Amino acid sequence: MKSAFLIGSIGAALGWSYVRHIQLPMGPSRLLWGGVVFGHRGCRNVDGTPENTLAAFKYAAERGCGGIECDARLTKDNEVVIFHDTAAHGLLREVPFDRRIDELTLFELRECTYTADPTQAIRVPTLEETILFCRDNNLRLLIEMKDLKRAYLCTDKVLDLYRRYPDYMYDQTTLISFHPGALYHARKRDKKVAVCQLYSDNLVQLWIAANTDAVPPLLRLCPALWDRLLLFVQAKIMPWVAGCSMVGPRYDLFDEASRKRWMTRNICMYLWGFTRREDCTPEMRQPGVCVSGDDHQEDFATPRPPPDFDIFGDRQRELERQQEEAYRRLRIGK
Question: Could you state a single Gene Ontology molecular function term (predicted)?
Answer without folding.
Answer: glycerophosphodiester phosphodiesterase activity
